[in-house]
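REQUEST FORM: STRUCTURE PREDICTION
Request ID: SP-0412
Submitted by: Lab K.M.
Chain count: 1
Length (residues): 267
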Amino acid sequence: MKIKLNNIYKSDCVEFMQKLDDEYIDLTITSPPYDELRNYNGFSFNIDNIIKELYRITKTGGVVVWVVGDKIKKGNRTLTSFKHALAFQQAGFNVHDVMIYKKKNTPFMRSNAYTNCYEFMFIFTKGSPKTFNPLMEKTVRNGLEMAVFNKGPDGKNKKTLVELKKEKTKNNIWEYAVGLGGTTNDKIAFKHPAIFPEQLAEDHILSWTNPDDIVFDPMCGSGTTCKMALLNNRNYLGCDISIEYVTNAKLRIKQTEMTFSLFQESL
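STATUS: Completed
RESULT:
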């Protein structure tokens, strides 16, 4: 099988990665089928071999975004998320950040604990990240203001005139609505049992890559990572063990390409 960029392939992810060159991928964004919480049409999960191949194919300075949570069984968390993080670290990756994907409208309630509304987004890097384009958000206050500096042992406040910027770098807790209209407007995407928001994928793509970089999802499911790479002028690669998911993801990409083409023609 000759692998070409900007395609989605039906394949076991480890076997697929073994066909890729060393130091090939700039950014991987994926959410593994942790703790058997969903039926993923035959996927078998070999965490050690997946991490080994991800490390080999990731460029020096490249990033892996690993979206994962924990199963709660009889009141006890599996802590699968942290087990994965330690495995990545032991394989040579840096745990560059531990981010939170907060769900605005999660429906799942627990009778004897607070509602679980998040998953982790581990940012694993091969060395220091070669690209970081920080996303910005508006500040509550901006302009000139007297601010405290160099408070001494006497406890007296010293103030100096500083300029508060209109924007600041976002923090590492990102909040998204889920469900139709939040996760995506593509109804075909919901034929997959577990999808993450398009905006989540786009935010990471913009943060960790530049145009023409290669973005990869080894368990691409509904194709969200690939779609958002396409829309942001990045090359993409995806694979999935399920022919059903690959077919749906390719259809989703085709619809996106048609819409994107019509939009550009109208400019």
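NOTES: The first strand starts at residue 7 and ends at 10.
Reviewed by: T.R.
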